[in-house]
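ligand=2'-monophosphoadenosine-5'-diphosphate
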Amino acid sequence: MTDRYAVVGHPVAHSKSPLIHRLFAEQAGQDLVYETLLAPLDGFAATVRAFFAGGGKGLNVTVPFKAEAFVLADVCSPRARQASAVNTLGCDADGRLWGDNTDGAGLVRDLCDALGLTLSERRLLVLGAGGAACGILGPLLEEGPREIVVANRTAARAQALADRFRCLGAVRGCGLADLFGMGAFDVILNATSASLSDALPALPLGLVAGDTVCYDLAYGNEPTAFLRWALEQGAARAEDGLGMLVEQAAFSFELWRGVRPDTARVRGILRPDLPRASS
Ligand code: ATR
């Protein structure tokens, strides 16, 4: 019987995950279907339980349910615990729900393999201190950057997040205005939700040098306000989060099916006009 997978969210109709997983499955010769699953805002747990009770094999979890999925899972991976969020769910042989988080690993894979960046000893700036920022800090710190500055509109949230991850490396939190005078960063990652409304965090001048790479975790058909700002500031590169989406999906696929998909080929199909170094 064909195995069933889905991405659960609210809203979820716009998700590119079904297309990505269909391409992975074709490529790897895997017999599966992957759909979207709209859960009511107050009905996430019931939707997940019904899916697995009906024989579903695995779920990706997207906005706004990643923290709820973390609470719902019976067992969570260390990286899901670190992020306090789950984006991949499965069911083990004893019927227990397991949860993992492949977002941060997907980002690092995209930055280091697809874009060819080195994060070790680099100065990184993470904008935002919500769920998205929390999900990437652990995997970024594992790459050994010289420091990560987490800057947020609400400074206290950035400081609290940095405190939580300080045991893993050099990370500090501050407000957006505090960035003035800190000099340019090697990599600037936009993990705020501002891009969803085409807004730009209020950033001071001087953060971008000619070799700075700017990366927006969000993606869309047009460059986000942050990526437009990056190019205006003279950044070497301005990249959106489509590559991260493909890479996190590949890690989920591997967890479920035990097969590693060829992500470079899928990225090329999704966006043939933007060739990148292959991973
Ligand atoms: P997510 O799960 O997408 O991270 P979230 O947990 O609600 O969503 O966090 C949203 C993040 O985007 C927060 O860091 C938020 O800043 P505040 O903590 O000050 O609210 C940030 N954010 C959203 N809109 C923003 C904007 N227009 N300018 C700057 N930061 C913004």
